Amino acid sequence: MKVFYTKKEISEFVNSIIREGKTLGYVPTMGALHQGHGSLIEQSITENQVTIVSIFVNPTQFDNKADLNKYPRTLENDIELIKKIDASIVVFAPSSKELYANDVNSKSYSFDGLEHEMEGKHRQGHFDGVGTILDLFFNLIKPTNAYFGEKDFQQLQIVKKLVSKLNLNVNVVGCNIFREHSGLAMSSRNERLSKEARAEAAFIFKTLKQAKIHFGTKSAAKVEEWVTNQFAKNTHFNLEYVSIANVNTLKPVKRKSKKQQYRLFIAAFIDNIRLIDNIALN
Ligand code: PAF
Questions:
Q1: Nearest residue to 188 (alpha-carbon basis) of 71, 82, 62
Q2: What pLDDT, on the 0 to 100 scale, is given for residue 55?
Q3: Strand order across the 145-149 sheet
Q4: Which residue's C-alpha comes closest to atom 1 of ligand 1?
Q5: Contacts made by residues 160-163, CB under 8 angstroms, sequence distance 24+
Q6: Where does ligand 1 bind, in terms of residues with CB under 6 Å?
Q7: Which ranges in the chain belong to alpha helices (H)?
Q8: How high is the pLDDT of residue 51?
Q9: Do the domain assignments include residue 128?
Q10: Contact 170, 162 (CB under 8 A)
């Protein structure tokens, strides 16, 4: 299997694929791969002639140094896992120095307000960091299609905005959330949960599903209040935010309209580990 570490190597490879006129699927990751990533990779393989997976823990999107340091790094396992899916996949695993040289800083972007909601409020500079790294990767890899999970739904909408603002010729594909048997959304962070916390974390999806039922008959404010109360009663969790928002603007719903689509978003801590999840409401 091909594993590239430098911009020069990946550019040469990408240019050869473009010369051959082949479609290129791209799955950006920060490693610590799980079945959720596996499903994005499988979709890319089905829809493209060549698939590239990048593995890079991007420092500029972490607002918290401790979180960056604790982020799991399992490159050898990741490469083995990808090889098992399909050995023709190409892996790009650059170092921070290779990508950023000595300037480990974000550029600053406007995503027309999407960046000020939810994660944007709680993780300072996060989306500038995501924009910076994807701007760089999209320009290096020039994918036909790029795959993102809906667990990070706000990120998905921001990536679509980035591509449209930068006029990039990339089709951004959103993929369904992949869940553990318990319903917990797959995340590299789940590896850091104790066995007990991991079992308890199924509470998030259980609450989302019940909230969806309530949304049929109650106002958005009432459903948010109900969710807040459920979390207040659960001693394992600290709820950071709950928001019922319009899927396009990500702005909180004031008054429901049948013509609009909504999602319920949650961020909560368990054992000091921050988990996010969301569900389509209509
Ligand atoms: O979702 C992620 O893992 C990261 O935000 C991404 C898209 C790989 C950018 O670093």
A1: 71
A2: 98
A3: 3-4, 90-92, 50-55, 24-29, 145-149, 171-175
A4: 29
A5: 161/111, 161/112, 161/114, 162/109, 162/111, 162/131, 162/134, 162/135, 163/138
A6: 28-30, 58, 61, 130, 133-134, 152, 155
A7: 7-19, 35-47, 65-70, 75-85, 96-100, 118-122, 126-141, 153-165, 195-200, 202-215, 220-233
A8: 99
A9: yes
A10: no
User: Model's pTM, two decimal places?
Assistant: 0.97
Looking at 148, 175, 202, the residue that finishes a domain is 175
Which ranges of the chain have pLDDT less than 50? none
Q: How far is the CA of 109 from the centre of ligand 1 (A)?
A: 16
Is 121 exposed, middle or buried, given 0-12, 13-18 or 19+ CB atoms closer than 10 A?
middle
182 inside domain = no
Euclidean distance between CA atoms 174 and 160, whole angstroms: 10
| Pair 135, 213 in one domain | no
Residue 181 tokens read as 């048997």
SS3 224: helix
Partners of 265 in beta bridges: 243, 278
Residues 281 and 268: their CA atoms lie apart, in Å, by: 19
124 vs 116: CA distance, rounded Å = 10
Q: What is the pLDDT of residue 256?
A: 94
CA gap 189, 273 in Å, rounded: 7
Is residue 145 domain-shared with residue 54, that is, in the same domain?
yes
Q: Which of 34, 37, 181, 236 is catalytic?
A: 37
Q: Report CA torsion sign: 158, 133, 176, 119.
A: negative
Total domains in the fold of the chain? 2
Q: Are residues 208 and 148 part of one domain?
A: no
User: Is 34 among the catalytic positions?
Assistant: no
Within-domain flag for 70: yes
State the Cα–Cα distance between residues 173 and 22, nearest whole angstrom: 18
Tell me the one-letter amino acid at 87: A
Of the candidates 245, 238, 249, which has an alpha carbon nearest to the alpha carbon of residue 275?
238
- Closest among 138, 56, 141 to 100, alpha carbons compared: 56
Residue 268 structural domain: 188-280
